[in-house]
Amino acid sequence: MNECKPISVPCAIGVPLHNGQSPQDSDEKNEMSNKPYREAVGSLMFAATVSRPDIMFAVNQVSRFLNNPGIEHWCAVKRILKYLQGTKNIGIRYNGDLQLTIYSDADFAGDCDTRRSTTGYVSLLATGPVTWSSHRQKCVTKSTAEAEYIAASDAVAEIVWLRNFLKEIKISVSDSTPLYVDNQSAIKLMKNNEHHKRTKHIDMMS
Q1: What is the Cα–Cα distance from 206 to 203, expressed in whole angstroms?
Q2: What is the pTM for the complete model shown?
Q3: Could you please report the per-residue DSSP string of 105-139?
Q4: Domain boundary at 86, 115, 131, which?
Q5: 8: DSSP letter
Q6: How does pLDDT run across 9-26, given as a tens digit for each residue?
Q7: What domain of life does the native source organism fall in (predicted)?
Q8: CA–CA separation, 67 and 35 (whole Å)
Q9: Which of 56, 86, 116 is at the close of a domain?
């Protein structure tokens, strides 16, 4: 991959991966048998977990097919590697401001096989990321607002843990931590948590 052509984004937009792309016959399985899929995904997961939050979503996608990867899945792995090749000089920088913030988002019904949504969040301290995650939600949501609401709930749990951790190591942060969500319906639900027709089931689930 040292001589590969770098690309600007780690995953193809609007081209979801799914189980239908897994090998369907012995010829396709033989074609994939010599591909180091598990090893590559394992290495990418290490990078995503330690210092590359920008590939976390893409790595989460390809990690779903470790048991039976297909050519499309392998191409997605190589795409992440090409992205890393072109961004290998990117790093994380922190400044002196200890303001703690967190952003959350959700990919509504993004898993074509289960229709489960993906939660994503990143917490920033001193303007740099300190914790981040991309994972499938445990349940199938009925709307974008519901998926975003659950993602925000996960982000709040993360920020509570992070604030307690910073307190233990004697790092002082502001009294409140801003949470940024890009869905107006989810924000309204958080501010006015009433049992509306489309959201009354969320209270018990979350």
Answers
A1: 6
A2: 0.89
A3: EEETT--TTT---EEEEEEEETTEEEEEEEEE-SS
A4: 86
A5: S
A6: 999 988 899 999 999 999
A7: Eukaryota
A8: 13
A9: 86
